[in-house]
Amino acid sequence: MVKIDLGGCASFEKDADYKEYVDKALKAFDVLEAETGAGNDFLGWKTLPVDIPESLIREFEEIQADWKAKGVDLAVVIGIGGSYLGARCAIEALSHNFAKQLRKPGDAPEVVFAGNNLSEEYLAELMDLMAERNCACIVISKSGTTTEPAVAFRIVKKFIEERYGRKEAAERIVAVTDAKKGALKTLATQEGYKSYVVPDNVGGRYSVLTPVGLLPILIAGFNVRAMLAGAAETREVLKVKGEDNAAVQYAAMRNALYSVYGKSTEILVTYNPKFFYLAEWWKQLYGESEGKELKGIYPASVTNTADLHSMGQFIQEGSRIMFETVVTSKTSSRSVVIESDPQNLDCLNYLAGQHVEHCNAMAQLGTKLAHIDGGVPQMEVSVEKIDEYNLGSLFYFFEFACGVSAYTLGINPFNQPGVEAYKKNMFALLRKPGFEEQTAAILKRIGE
Ligand code: PA5
């Protein structure tokens, strides 16, 4: 279960400033819970942890069993943004760091991702991999019309159909999309794919606990029931209004740091490479939810200790625009102790008998103190360990806190109007039918 520690911000804020923002966050909490705020038709995520039926998970297990019987060892998961990052975050966090290199026959399929870029090399190299492996595909797009996953799916679909035949391909492809509309829904119906729904009232970046995240995470071999349980228990705690509510505290502190103290960048800091994609998921959640109307805290991230040797200099002494939120797991699931060495040529005998994780913890504490001295406030969000239950808890905590925080800032957290700008230009440049006028205008603008 998620816990929050605001101690590293104490020397930066006057109590009255924090208190003012706690009051604002409590009002925002009411708006979120009463469902009276902007975008309140996108609040389905709040009760997802208890709404997901057991029968749906059993259906996913049937797909898993069916693919296992076929010997599938590679699942290509196609999607972008909210239709990608949650699954990747969970799978990377829960997998062995060297799962790929240690693969054995009978293991859950390796999950690889596509449709999250338009790199020709990436897709060509994906085909190289698929040619060597026994493949299936999960294609995910809520709208069913997003260009990047649509391009990837056209290529992957053709490959699977040529390799296995169209009938067998229909058993190796599963779609996750809108209940009724969109090109992907039409295609899935026509080809006879199993198809699962992204609920209308859940936006992409809040969809990890729908089939968007749950199906790929289960196919990768992880326990989605435990993940839902972690989210459900966190919901029970966070729905209780109060100054000690962790989501209220997080929302209040980050808004006070931003609005009163001009801290316009929040760096999500992790000390475990397994959390790399947690930061990527969090950046999308907060960036797309709050970065509007010329407002919002810019979400950035570092993975320490690696980034202490790159971004550490800037964070310590560069422009004083940032605060940090450190996400940690309190315990390591593995044990590695540094042993004494008779020659001690590396001069590390002073660490003999210590766990490597102790060194990591001291690096973290030393960094916290140095950054506070350097003018960087720090919050800590922690879980006991990295497992399905605690990831579910983190997902729910950050989603709920995002709703509270955006309403505290006076922003609708559930739309993303700015994402359309690049798409309009790209369609005009690609000469998409219907964009003729924009094509003429953009060609003139770039002098062609
Ligand atoms: O959060 C969002 O809504 C976006 O990031 C979408 O998830 C992303 O654009 C993908 O959209 P779709 O699932 O419709 O393909």
Percentage of β-strand residues: 5-15%
Distance between the termini: 57 Å
**Highest-level CATH class of the largest domain:** Alpha Beta
Q: Which outline best applies?
A: globular
Task: Name the CATH superfamily classification of the largest domain.
Answer: Glucose-6-phosphate isomerase like protein, domain 1
Helix content: 40-55%
Strand order of the largest sheet: 1-10-9-7-8
Biggest beta sheet attributes: 5 strands, mixed
The number of helical segments is 18
Q: Report the CATH topology name of the largest domain.
A: Rossmann fold
The number of domains is: 2
Mean pLDDT over the residues: 96
Low-confidence stretches: none
Q: Which secondary-structure class do the elements indicate?
A: alpha/beta
Q: How many strand segments?
A: 10
The bound ligands are: 5-phosphoarabinonic acid
Task: Walk me through the structure.
The chain is of the alpha/beta class and 448 residues long. The protein has two domains: 3-39 and 228-409, 3-Layer(aba) Sandwich (Rossmann fold); 45-225, Rossmann fold. It is 49% helix and 13% strand. It contains 18 helices and ten strands. It has helices spanning 15-34, 48-51, 54-69, 85-94, 99-102, 120-132, 147-164, 166-172, 183-191, 211-219, 224-238, 246-259, 276-290, 312-317, 356-373, 388-409, 420-429, 436-445; strands spanning 3-8, 74-78, 110-114, 135-141, 173-177, 194-197, 265-270, 298-303, 322-329, 378-383. A five-stranded mixed sheet has the order 1-10-9-7-8, with helices on both faces. A five-stranded parallel sheet has the order 3-2-4-5-6, with helices on both faces. α1 packs across α16 and α17 packs across α18. The N and C termini lie far apart (57 Å). The structure holds 5-phosphoarabinonic acid. The site of 5-phosphoarabinonic acid has 14 residues, from loops. 5-phosphoarabinonic acid is lined by residues 80-83, 141-143, 146, 149, 203-205, 288, 416.
